[in-house]
Amino acid sequence: MHQSVPIRPVEALLRPRSIALVGISAKGGAGANILRSGERFGFTVPTWPVNPNAAEIGSHRCYKSLRELPQVPDCVVIAVPADAVLDLLGEAAAAGIRSACVISEGFADSATDQGRERQERLTALARAAKLAVAGPNCMGLASLHYRFAATMADIPAAAVSGGISLVSQSGGLVNSFAELTGNRGIGVNYLISSGNEAVLEMADYIDYLADDPATNVIACIMEGVRNGRRFRAAVERAARRKPMVVLKLGRSEFGARATLAHTGTLAGRHEAFVALFRQNGVAMVDSIDALVETAALFDLAPLPQGDRVVMMTVSGGATSLIGDLGEAAGLNFPKIEAATNLRLQKILGVEREFGNPLDTVGLPRLRKDGNITAVVQALLEDDGVDVIALVLGMRADGWDSHQELVDRLADAATGARKPVLLVSFMSNSLTRHWRGYGHARGLPLVEDLERGLKAVRQLIDYAQFRRRHADRPADAAATPASVDIAVVPPRRVLTEAESKKILAAAGLPVTLERLARDPAEAVRIAAEIGGPVALKIQSPDIPHKSDIGGVHLGARTPAQVQQAAQQVLDNAHRNCAGALIDGILVQEMVEDGVEMILGMTYDEQFGPLVVCGAGGVTVEVFKDAAVLIPPVSHEEVRGVLRSLKVAKLFDGFRGAAPRDVEALVDCCLRFCEFVVASDGRFKAIDLNPVFVLARGRGVRIADALIETRRSEA
After folding, report:
1. Is residue 412 within 8 Å of 420, Cβ to Cβ?
2. Cα–Cα distance between 94 and 84 in angstroms, integer?
3. pTM, whole model, 2 decimals?
4. CB atoms < 10 A from the CB of 346, how many?
5. pLDDT tens for each residue of 136-148
6. What is the tens place of the pLDDT at every residue in 601-658?
7. Could you tell me how many helices (H) and strands (E) the chain has, helices first?
């Protein structure tokens, strides 16, 4: 066996020059299916069957062992019983093979101690030997562009080579993706089934595809990750190069349980994935159909320069439907500029102003004298339009009237700086006659109006992300300002006073307050603070003070302060006998503020996750909040705050003064810097409420609770 020129292990797996196939039988099975997958497409990468009991399988010579192969293959595909896999991997490594694809199941996917231990040994062996291993428990992989197939996936005979690459932790859903893209004639490059990801993880494939010149769009079907930080780094790097579309499974409690049973991978905190994808312009979808349609749009459409969309169709009722679904998708349909509107009226012979979405008053007007070309040209020349779409009820078997319009639309879109696309109202309407049309003509064709409008919104969002980060590297926001971390008391749950001391040292805007040892000292402190005060019991054993009557608000006179301080002490002793009491916190009252919540929870996969949203006592009822993964930018914080329902109160509601939103943004940024600087020290932080005062008056953190990770260290 001759040694070929070495290549990187991952490249050996994903760009193999030769493949060995172990576990193949003339009787059929997984190995035989894998061998046929390459034959069906006439792929030319040499594939050598290995079976000590056969001289030939099909038209292929069979080798008795890896040592007898004509040269060292780049990749070995293993489809044997689980208990034989490790010996084969060891033999492959000893022979100088750099990569392997393990089809075999019976590892962590079995949800048994034996299976998990077997997978741990596989991981250790592969890392020691520097083997790039896909699987185990996977369907294999293929590339229509690089012309090799080592997969059990049912790739349709009509599959088309193109720029979309799929990485899927679900092998079965690879089949669905391949079938749907094949039916639509949408071009595909890689089909990668990653399985249990014992060695190579989703992050490794994303990293590779980010640099692959034949991949324009990275599509992922994922259940979870083991290393959230590594996955985040891969997403942040890839998204700055090319669009990503992700179907995240395991969002529900049932889905999470199924994920664990399926691959042995924890689904992870769904909100963390949502935050990561939102912050990096990744399109998150909820079905295979949406994954395909969105990826297909990204593959063919240029990135728009703004969010102003014009959609035209041929009936008034249709414009209403487009408007309703477009608003739900978050699309901006601006009024068409007067000069352009007059130009369109002249082209279409209509003596009234056009709205947007635009009703062309019937299909014949759009067909007449090639009017569609002139209409599209007018919109292309209008700097107030960023995206142009024609929406029709396409017929799967084609129609001459549609053919003429779509051909002219494709001609007009050629070389255009703006996205020009066709959206069909219905599903399953762009298959038979229209199959492959978009790929051949370079015209994005999207079917199903609701999915299509969401895909357009995601295209706009990704374009905004790319513009925002055009001159900023992926790690530009990763160096926060210097943050001082105060000495943390040696206990798991800190009192409000202890928590605020730490926050104040980090430069966060806490309320004016001091700790009193008894009611008499509380009276003296209240006089020094001035105005009405709040009195709060302080005990590491009483995290929720209000629940036991440990809070009194609005005490003004010395007598009121004395009485209130004694009352919260008595309530604490009565309701929490034996609790350690540090004293009574005397705090300035903050009034006339919009109540927000800022918080942090430590996720074992992603690290600290920051929550911001509507605060107060009803925070768990309305759940008007969003998650951020720090570090974050000013624009990201502002965008998240504006996405909340409570944001309506920021501009002044029913006569109230506008709120100091900039101060809130600054507070959020400082808090994010604090949690990055203290990464790993705290399990949870709860700042609720954070009062947003009138513009120019800032914000105040009125209550705080910190839970340390000390007991977990």
Report:
1. yes
2. 16
3. 0.91
4. 12
5. 999 999 999 999 9
6. 998 889 999 999 999 876 776 788 999 999 999 999 999 999 999 999 999 888 789 9
7. 23, 29
pLDDT the model gives residue 32: 75
If one counts every other C-beta atom within 10 angstroms of the C-beta of residue 580, the result is 12
Q: What is the DSSP string of 183-232?
A: HHT-EEEEEEE-TT-SSS-HHHHHHHHHH-TT-SEEEEEE---S-HHHHH
- Which of 35-49, 222-236, 426-440 is predicted with the least confidence, judged by mean pLDDT? 35-49
Q: Do 699 and 667 contact (CB within 8 A), yes or no?
A: yes
pLDDT-derived band of residue 479, with 50, 70 and 90 as boundaries? Answer: very low
> Dmax of the chain from CA atoms?
101
Reading the block at residue 439, the tokens are: 């790929």
| Residue that is written with structure tokens 């780049």 in the block | 74
Cα–Cα distance, 498 to 485 (Å, whole number): 12
User: pLDDT value at position 44?
Assistant: 80
pLDDT attached to residue 555 = 96
pLDDT at 713: 41
Phi, psi (deg, nearest 5) at residue 710: -55, -40
Ordered DSSP codes for 548-601: GT-EEEEE-SHHHHHHHHHHHHHHHHHHSTT----EEEEEE---S-EEEEEEEE
pLDDT band at 253; cut points 50, 70, 90: low
Structure tokens at 87: 């010996």
Cα angle, residue 393 at apex, residues 387 and 394 outer, rounded to 5°: 95
What does each C-alpha distance from 392 to 185, 334, 436, 447, 516 come to in angstroms? 19, 21, 18, 10, 72
Euclidean distance between CA atoms 192 and 202, whole angstroms = 10
Distance CA 384, CA 421 (A): 17
- Residue at 193: amino acid letter: S
Q: Compute the mean pLDDT over every residue in the chain, rounded to the nearest whole number.
A: 91
What is the full DSSP assignment across 89-122? HHHHHHTT--EEEE----SGGG-SHHHHHHHHHH
Cα–Cα distance measured from residue 647 to residue 613, given in angstroms and rounded to the nearest whole number: 9
Query: What CA–CA distance (Å, rounded) separates 41 from 553?
Result: 76
Torsion of CA 127, 131, 132, 134, to 10 degrees: -90
Sheet with 160-168, edge to edge strand ranges: 148-151, 140-143, 187-193, 160-168, 217-222, 244-248, 283-285
Which residue in this structure is represented by tokens 């003296």? 524
Q: What is the pLDDT of residue 158?
A: 86
Place of tokens 């790319």: 466
| Cβ neighbours, 10 Å, residue 157 | 8
Whats the size of the chain, residue-wise?
A: 713
Between CA 130 and CA 98 the distance in angstroms is 7
3-state helix, strand, coil in the chain (%, to 5): 40, 20, 40
Q: Which of 503, 506, 497, 502 is nearest to 487 (CA)?
A: 502
**What's the mean pLDDT in 330-350?**
97
- What does the pLDDT look like over 389-405, one tens digit per residue? 999 999 999 999 999 99
Give the span between the Cα atoms of 241 and 35, in whole angstroms: 34
The pLDDT of residue 655 is: 76
